[in-house]
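Protocol step 4 of 5: obtain the predicted structure for the target chain.
Materials: sequence only (see below). No template structures provided, no constraints applied. The aim of this step is simply to have a reference model before the mutagenesis design in step 5. Sequence pasted as it appears in the construct record:
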Amino acid sequence: MLVALPSHALDHVTLQLKWTHAFQFAGYYAAKEQGYYREAGLDVSIVEAVPGVDPVKNVLEGSAEFGVGTSALLLQRKTGKPVVALAVIFQHSPYVLIARQLSATQTIHDLIGKRVMLEPQADELLAYLKKEGIPLDRITQIEHSYDPQDLIGGKIDAIAGYATNQPYYLDRARFAYQIYTPRSAGIDFYGDNLFTAEQELKTHPERVRAFREASLRGWKYAVEHPEEMANLILAKYSRRHTRDYFLFEAKQTIALIHPELIEVGYMNASRWRHIADTYADIGMLPHNFSLDGFLYDPNPRRDLTWLYRSLAATLLLSIVVAPLVVLRKSKQMNRQLEERVASAQQTLATSFDERRALEISNAAANERERIYRDLHDDVGAKLLGLSISAQRADLPREADMARSALQDLRDVVSRSAQPATPLGDLVADWRAETEQRLHHLGITLNWQIPAEDMTMLVSTEAALNLSRILREALTNVLRHAQADKIVVDTTLAQDCLMLSVEDNGAGLPKDGAKPHRGMTSMGTRAAMLGASLSWQAVEPHGCLVMLKAPLASLSYENAAAIKINLS
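Step 4 output (C-alpha cells):
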C-alpha cells in the first residue's frame, strides 16, 4: 500500500539517472506517467545523465533526492559518503566491457595498452580488471561519451556498457566485437540500485518510503507492459533511439530483473555481504566491511522506548517498595535468593560452555575460509589460465570444462560465506551461468520459467549440491551428447523441487555400459539431499535427467534446527 503524503500540495523531488533515457529506467517513467508518484504526494523530475555526471555526487550535494547507482555504492560508503541502498532493480548487473574484435582468440588481457571508455561508478569493471590481473595504469581511461559510435569509428578500443543495449547498434553496424563480463571472473553484482542519502532518509522518512513504493509499483507495471513503455519513452523521453531498439533493450532488461522469480526491488543482505567480500578480496574494501546503515529497511521495528521507560519506572517502584516486603517475608526471600543463585551459577556454566563452543566454531570457520581463499587464489588462477589457453587454441569444449571447474571452486568460496540463499536467487544464478556457458557453443537454451513462489531459503550445503548436479548434467551434455538444444525446467510440486535437463543429443549410454564418474557423482549428491535422480531416453533421440528433491531437505530453517538439536 502506498504511503500518501498530504494531498493539498505535492512534494517536489528529483531522481538522477546514471545514463541517458532508456528502458533501463522504465519503471520510473511508468510511476510518473501512471500517476503513482502523484498518488503518493510527489512531483518527480527525472534527470538523465550527461558526460561527467556523477549521480552519487548530485544526491549527496542535494541537487537530487534520489539516484540510480551500481553496487559501487559500497565503495562510496567506505569513503565516508552516506549513501543508502533503497531497492535493487537488476538482480544481475548488465555491466560489460565491449572491445573491438581483432582475433577469434583474444581475451580481456588484450586490453592492456588500449583506450578504454569508462563512466563514473564503473568500479565494478575496475574490480573485474583488477581480479584478472590487469593493472589500471596499463590501460588508458577515457571519459564516457555515451555514444557507441566512438567504438565503431575507432576513437577508442573498448567501451564500458550494458549488455542490454549496446549490442543492438553494434550488430546493426555489422561491427565485430567481443564482450567481457565480470561474471566470468565470479563478480556477480546487483545492478541499477535505487539509493538516497542518509540525511534525506533521516529528514523525510515518509517521503523516502513513498518514493520507493511508488517506484517499485511503476517497475511492476513496466515489466508487464514493455511495448507500451517503449512507445512512451519514444514519445516523451528520448528520440535518440528507435522503437525497435527500446523493445530489444526491454527484453534484455526484464531477463536481468527476473520478475518471474523475485519480487521487483528485493535485495538480500547476504548477497550484499558477498559483494562486499568480493571487493575486499581484491583490496577495494576492508574485510568484514560493515553494512550497518547502508541497507534500507522498509519495515523497521517499532519504537519501543515508551515500553522501556514504563519497565524502568516499574523497576524503580519495585526497588522502593522491596525493603518493606523483605522485612515481612525474609525467610521466603532468602529461600528464593538461594534458588536464584543456584540458577545463575548453572546459567553461567552453560554460558561458558556455549561461549567455548562458539570460539571453537569460529576458529574452524576462519581456518576453513583461509583454506578456501588459498584454493581460489592458487587453483583458481591455474583454471583461469587453462580456460584462456583453451579458448585461444579454439577448443571451446575444453575451455568450458575449465570454466565449469572454476565455477565449482568459486561456488564453494562464495556460498560458504552465506548461510542461506533464496531459491529464486539460486535459480536465477543457474540460468545466468548456463546462458554464459552455452553462448559460445552454438547450443540453444530453453529455460522453463517456474510459476511458483521461490522465496524459500536454501541451506548452503543443499545449494552447493544442487548447483553441482545441474552443472554436471550440463557438462555431460557438452562432452558426450553432441546436442544443439537443451531445455532446463525448475518447478515446485508435491513439496519437492523438480529440476530437469533435457537434450536432443545422442541419448543414454548403450545397455551394459557403466555409468561414468560424473553420473556417479550426481547420484551421490542426490542421495545427500534425500532426492531421487533418474535418466530417461527421449524419443526420437536425446536424454532427460530428472531430480526430485524434498523441500524439507533443502530448507535452511530445517538445517539450522537440526544443527541446534545435535548441539
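Step 4 remarks: The domain at 11-90+190-281 is CATH 3.40.190.10 (D-Maltodextrin-Binding Protein; domain 2). DSSP finds 20 helices and 17 strands in the chain.
Proceed to step 5.
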